[in-house]
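Possible race condition, two jobs.
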Amino acid sequence: MYKKKMKKTLVIGATVLDLIIQIDHLPRTSEDIHIQKQRMALGGCAYNAADILRKFEIPYYLLSPIGSGRYASIVENMLKEKGMVSPVKIEEEDNGFCLCMVEKDGERTFVVHHGVEYGFQKAWVTDQMKKEVDSVYISGFEVEESNGEEIISFLEENREFQVYFAPGPRLGKIQPERISRIFACNPIIHLNEEEAMELSKEKDYEHAAKAIYDITGNMVIITLGKAGAYYYEDGQGHLVPGREATVVDTIGAGDSHIGAIMSCRKLGFSMQQSVECANKVSAAVVGVQGSSLNEEQFKQAIGQIPR
């Protein structure tokens, strides 16, 4: 238990049903291939990040719409099994799903059907929530959507919240004007090496981190796969080596990394300590199928957490 009351993190975004199939390689046009394994699990950037907060016992709100229909029912029941709920219920539409195709080297390719989970309305954030929150997580998937404007407007109206922004692989689809407005909210940016160079137009991650920092004025964290992660803070860059991992698939590795960083910062860890811990968590995530660690796997990954 905590010695003092901790404010919550507001996690905005999607919870989807991941349909995970393991295949030798992505099929070519008209090719017929066999699935080696298949399973169903919860996924979505917001869910993955919130699940790590939950495991660290960090208070949070998961503002992830639940619809009405076959997929919505499965998602809602699977969340309940983990003791997780969303305060947003939408009756008119179903939730979507993500077909996750995992090749033999662990790399994943997504085909996504969007449902209600990618929506957002400022009215969903009640005055009571605002009193209890001091930080907000958002991902690029929701910002890209037609009502991503609502998310940005919410951030602009609540500048007191620390924003964590994970642009993600759809970065190039987000309107530059929206990126500029988010950057004006001084977010902590979390992205991988490829995304960092796409965003900054630089040729290496070190210059990319500095270029992004010069715009946002806040920390930039760049994940580098097995090499670890690099963060830029107060005019200095720091490389934090990665952890040894046997890659099963890479689903949720980035989401779990930022979830761990948000958690560790709440616990008062330095940025160095936070990234070290996040590297442990993401290394464990790539070693299992799907985006989530069970409780035992999580405990093995991080060891004892100082309170």
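Job #2 (started ~2 s after job #1):
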Amino acid sequence: MEKTILELRDIVKTFPGVLALNGIDFELRSGEVHAICGENGAGKSTLMKVVCGVHKPDSGTMVVNAEEEAFANPMEAYQKGVSIIFQETSLFEEMTVLDNLFLGHEMTKKIGFVSVIDYEGMKKRAKEIFKRLNTQMNLEVTIKTLGM
């Protein structure tokens, strides 16, 4: 049996006049893939935003890798291994694929007392990611040159 990596228990989230999530329970084990499906307004995006720290639940608990968590923001979630890729494209068209991929999470290395961006390390990591996805991408092109 695979280890539980994410567990949601009785998650409730409201917005003014709207009960968005009502007692949601969910469990994800290592190696599993799930699809969250439903009509517009069903709470799919709200649930994912609770998981990654964009929204705080009104009640309920979230356990990540056997530790109860209440992320204050997406960066805190990211540092604990939880992140989300939103369906809305919010990329910087004048920047490269590589720069967009690591924006806000740049890898750094020390040169003496100074930290600098580790472009070679980021390129290596990006190539590993795209290899896992079974695709290739020119990391040096700007986003504006790519189609959807």
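The first helix runs from residue 44 to 51.
Logs attached separately.
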